[in-house]
Design brief:
two-stranded antiparallel sheet, 15 helices, about 350 residues, alpha/beta, about 15% strand
Length: about 350
């Protein structure tokens, strides 16, 4: 467990069923730090498990631990990195797993660590160990509701790709483990080195922590036929007029009752859900086609390009053009001067809570 004088020891927690990329992604980032410097500065990464027997990941790939948990706990740890694992319930919903034995080990190792970071649903293990109490944290959007329900003492924010709360960091989706790792590098060795590592990985040069996970979860499971029919009605009619009064009339309920149903069943307001659905449709059109922003705004029910741009700022913390440039799956895209004009609008016009902003007619 000894390291060189300039190296920082990173311990990654292993257990049966762990997500493979959670474990293998961060070491790729850390290994490039030494390659990008002329001295011995950098990290030493070790994998710790209950025993030295091979650990089978969720992908079926077996990994050999370097040390046991007991051995790792004997010395000082710079960074404890905690990956996660999930299962599907009988309704095919994703749920994060928290083995009590692993939770106990995480709690013990965290006490020996300068800082702790979770990857994806590893935040659930930190939460179960009491390490996120009173803190703001993120996790993969598919289990954010579970995290908030099981740990009301945590301020769960499913939107950012990573969050730092003192000496505890939490990351979002699996691929966001690379962004989190780059942020740790920047914290230790500066932004310039982190950017050099990002170039070697051919990554977008270190997305900021506030960057959205770029996925709008539109399929929460509801328990009533009425809300399911309403959801499908919305998705079939995104280009049309979808106001709260129209939806209430369609469902044969009052506007107040409609809002209460949405809040109870989907955890949001009708207007916020409509805007999320429209952003999701626009996102797919930006990824796969050449349509101008005016056409996308019309097809997705935003009406104007300005409204489309503001919705992207609220939901994804980026603009449609920037999103298209980064996530486009086909070659070439038209330049849209309307968005450039919209981007010059005062930032205050785009502000507001993501979950409560009205979608407009």
């Amino acid at each position: 467990m000894e390291t060189g004088p300039a190296q920082r020891l990173i311990v990654i927690v292993l257990f049966e069923g762990v997500d493979l990329l959670d474990v293998t992604g961060p070491p790729e980032v850390f290994s490039l730090v030494r390659r990008e410097t002329d001295d011995a500065a950098g990290y030493r990464v070790v994998l710790a498990a209950e025993t030295l027997a091979p650990v089978t990941t969720a992908a079926g790939v077996r990994i050999l631990p370097d040390v046991t948990f007991d051995e790792a706990a004997r010395g000082g740890i710079d960074t404890l990195l905690v990956p996660g694992s999930v299962e599907l319930d009988d309704r095919r919903r994703v749920r994060a797993l928290t083995d009590p034995a692993v939770v106990d080990r995480v709690r013990t190792l965290a006490a020996r660590s300068r800082r702790v970071a979770s990857v994806c649903v590893g935040a659930h293990l930190l939460a179960a160990a009491g390490l996120l109490d009173g803190r703001r944290a993120t996790t993969h959007w598919s289990t954010a509701g579970q995290l908030a329900a099981e740990h009301p003492e945590i301020e769960v924010d499913a939107d950012p790709i990573f969050i730092r709360a003192g000496d505890v960091w939490t990351g979002a989706g699996i691929s966001a483990c690379l962004d989190l790792s780059l942020a740790l590098v920047a914290d230790d060795f500066g932004e310039e080195l982190a950017l050099r590592v990002a170039r070697q990985l051919v990554m977008y040069l270190k997305r900021p922590s506030g960057q959205s996970q770029f996925s709008v979860p539109l399929e929460p499971v509801s328990t009533t036929r009425r809300i399911e029919e309403l959801r499908h009605h919305i998705l079939r009619n995104l280009s049309g007029r979808l106001t709260v009064p129209d939806l209430a009339a369609h469902a044969h309920v009052s506007e107040r009752q409609l809002t209460r149903i949405f809040k109870t069943e989907l955890g949001t307001t009708p207007s916020a859900y409509i805007e999320s659905a429209r952003v999701e449709l626009a996102r797919h059109q930006l990824e796969s086609g050449d349509a101008t922003l005016e056409r996308i705004a019309a097809a997705c029910g935003f009406g104007t390009t300005d409204t489309l741009v503001r919705a992207f700022r609220r939901r994804l913390d980026t603009t449609p053009t920037d999103y298209r440039q980064r996530f486009r799956t086909t070659a070439g895209a038209p330049t849209d001067t309307t968005e450039a004009r919209s981007a010059a609008l005062p930032a205050a016009t785009a502000a507001g809570p993501r979950a409560t902003t009205a979608a407009g007619p």
